[in-house]
Amino acid sequence: MHPYIPLVLANRPIAESLVLNQCRRAYGAAYHHGDRQGCLKGTRESVLDEIEDWTEDFNKSPVFWLNGLAGTGKSTIAQTIAERVFAGGHLGASFFCSRAFEDRSDLHLIFPTLAFQLAQKYPGFRSVFVPLLQSNPDIFRDSLHSQMQELLLKPLLSTKISTVIVIDALDECKDEDPESAILFVLGKTISRVPGVKFFITSRPETNITSGFRGSLLREWTETFILHQVEPGIVHSDIRLFLKHELSKLPRRPQGWPTDEHLNLLCRRAAGFFVYAVATVNFLRHKFTCPSDRLDMIMKSPESTAHEGKTELKAYTSLDSLYTSIFRATFYKNDARDDATVRSVLSAVVLVTNPLSPSSIAILMGLKCKEVLPLLQSVQSLLTLHDDNTNYPVQSFHKSFPDFIKDPDRCSDARFYISPDYHTELVLCCLRLMGKSLKKNMCSIPDYALNSEVGDLERRIEENGIHGALEYACRSWHNHLITKADQTADLVSALRCFLEEKFLFWLEVLSVLGAAGDAVRALNVTIQWLNEVCPD
Amino acid sequence: MLTPSQILESVEVNPLLDTAIDCLYFVTEFFEVIRQSGPHIYHSALQLTSPSSMVRKLYIQQIYSPVSKVVTGVTDSEDSCTVSVRMEYPAGIWSPCGRFIAVYMEYLTAAAVEIRDPNTLGMVSTLEPPISDHRYGCESAIFSPDGHLLACGYHG
Predict the structure, then answer these.
(1) What is the pLDDT of residue B74?
(2) What residues 101-140 of chain B have any CB closer than 8 A to a CB of chain A?
């Protein structure tokens, strides 16, 4: 008998919680996770007012699309809206997509995660959702349409709740469909749940634009195009932000920043908040006067070209800022140092789940005392915790990996992360697995099932499987690409891995509860081998 | 200077492709075993995979305590064990001591009940029916609780 059945009789809420916690979902996707900041008070007021009015009026369209180019401040607005709607008691669920995390860029985890949060908030929803989850525990593998029907529509129809759901950065989910798959499903069901409002933000990617403009969603959607807001309004918001943030910086000279500085920075920001944020991050330095650092970036060429895929130019203000930050930071480097910079940064911008500085060091075969100072020197472009080398490091904004991986935008070849760095990452993963994987690393008793080992998590931790080795075991295949100079090295490393470490790798995936990764990895490997040698 | 395809020929991609395919076969065939237990990757999955499996050949030394497995009536394929037992022996029961398995064929003309070793399926003994002209096979069989006697039921 399943262990929760007696509990159903004894204590229904506890039993429901136990089932609910088994619900597969993306972790850290809700608005209150992480260090996301909302809008500075007094900025973005007109757009926030418009969206807030929409959230409160259930006679208006059930879908609101905040469409904006990268760096225009969509996520900050989404964060503010989520906080305000939550404060008003109407926030049902939120999902902040992020391509920096595998689960938060997985379309198939959006509906389960939203349903989980709705079930946590609304007891009526939970009482319908939990039995559905029990009767079909594999619902997470079903189609998006089936997920929507079972996980959201059925409980919503039976409870008739009124709520607001926030989905941020939909463009960061992996979706190959010509018309956004999730928007297609939403379009087919939105008319049946009149009490539910969806606030969605994204870049104007083609498939998402098609989704919102398609016949299913068009009449149900209100659209706000953030990069078409009156430039004067955005300019004054950015100015307010810069003045507020720069006047808090330590070691600033008296009277700094001047109006001239602010005007120049606003002009260079060209409507992109991310420029202002990156500048403030760069000027906020432990040991250097912010005015000296401002001089460094002021020397870079000025441009007011718009950034973003749809209006890409070779020199943009943002690209110019990033380039000048790199040049100012690494001006003393020789070619070998530059190669190390690229390797370490590739482990920040190419990985499918963020790694800590210590894990990056282990994975890349470097010393932590080499990696940490290097990351600290470009701290303005990263989220890095000074005191904790085990805390994952990420890009401060999506525009940074976009820049550094694009040869047209990253004009200084010393810092360009080419696709070949994926191959370096696979080789690093295979090397680490070759060195570390051994039979029965967790000393599991003979014939035991993983579920019978009470302290399995402790054994995994103590044997150093979490961190770099876990990443190597679970994600090496994500870096197999066909255009690589080092194909022969890679074939040789793969052979060693499959012939010597294959079963030990399966063991680690088994104890991590990630056996499915083995199927994915081998399928990708077979496809890759077929591509590199079609005969 | 070698072309990319010459380089790849020199590193022999195709044997590696075969190995990768065999590894995938191993994982999908024994997925539940792998998912549930690290040790059973060796105790169960590796033990039960076919003799022709590359994974088995590569990792044979990792089997904890090698034991013999099916050696008769088995073709050289991944599913041979299951297939051959299912086809040749539609019914079977274990002795209470676990040392023997009695296998018999319902609805077929072979009337004998065979006692086989459960690990190797090797023949231990053949029990002929008490009446030699039985036209049908044994319909049911059961060991006595002490395992010393085997009662068989015949039709007609």
Answers:
(1) 44
(2) none
Tell me the range of A170-184, A376-390, B79-93, B106-120 where mean pLDDT is highest.
A170-184
Residue type at A256 in one-letter notation: W
The pLDDT confidence band at residue A57, using thresholds 50, 70 and 90, is very high
Statement: residue B83 has pLDDT above 50: no
**CB burial class (10 A; 0-12, 13-18, 19+) of residue A393?**
buried
Cβ atoms of A73 and A278 within 8 Å: the answer is no
CB of A518 within 8 Å of any CB in chain B?
yes
Within 8 A by CB and 6+ apart from B64, the residues are A446, B39, B42, B43
- Contact indicator for A398, A172 with CB cutoff of 8 Å: yes
- Same domain for A195 and A256, yes or no, is no
Q: Is A141 part of the contact surface with chain B (CB cutoff 8 Å)?
A: no
CA A406 from centroid of its chain's CA atoms:
19
pLDDT attached to residue A71: 87
Q: Using CA of residue B131, residue B137, residue B140, residue B142, what is the dihedral sign?
A: positive
The answer to whether residue A5 neighbours chain B at the CB level (below 8 Å) is no
Assigned domain for B100 exists: yes
Among A94, A101, A109, which residue's Cα sits nearest to residue A140?
A109
A447: left (phi over 0), alpha (psi -120 to 50) or beta: left
- Residue ranges making up the domain that contains A290: 230-329
**Are the Cβ atoms of A503 and B11 closer than 8 angstroms?**
no
Q: How many CB atoms lie within 10 A of CB B111?
A: 21
Task: Summarize pLDDT for A346-362 with one digit per residue, the tens.
Answer: 999 999 999 999 999 99
Q: Taking CB atoms and an 8 Å cut-off, how many pairs form between chains A and B?
A: 102
pLDDT of residue B56: 92
Instruction: Give the span between the Cα atoms of A168 and A75, in whole angstroms.
Output: 6
Report the percentage of chain A scoring pLDDT > 70.
93
Asked whether residue B56 is domain-assigned, the answer is: yes
**Closest CA–CA distance from residue B13 to any residue of chain A (Å):** 7
- Chain CA centroid to CA A306, Å: 23
Q: What's the CATH number where A28 sits?
A: 3.40.50.300
Interface contact B34-A510, CB threshold 8 A: yes
Report the alpha-carbon distance of residue A91 to residue A188 in Å, rounded. 23
Give the pTM.
Answer: 0.73
User: Does residue A206 sit in the same domain as residue A94?
Assistant: yes
DSSP symbol at B143: E
Q: Which residues in chain A have their CB less than 8 angstroms from residue B7's CB?
A: 487-488
Which chain B residues are Cβ-neighbours of A532 within 8 angstroms? Answer: 8, 13
| pLDDT value for A429 | 98
Q: What is the ipTM of this complex?
A: 0.75
Render pLDDT for A257-277 as a digit per residue (tens, 0 to 9). 899 899 989 988 888 899 999
**Statement to judge: residues A363 and A495 lie in one domain:** no
Distance CA A455, CA A445 (A): 12
Query: Which residues make beta-bridge pairs with B102?
Result: B93, B115
Q: Using N-to-C axis directions, what is the helix angle for A110-121 and A123-135, rounded to 10°?
A: 130
Parent domain of B62: 4-67
φ/ψ of B132, rounded to 5, equals -75, -20
Q: Does A515 touch chain B (CB under 8 A)?
A: yes
Nearest CA in chain A to B30: A515
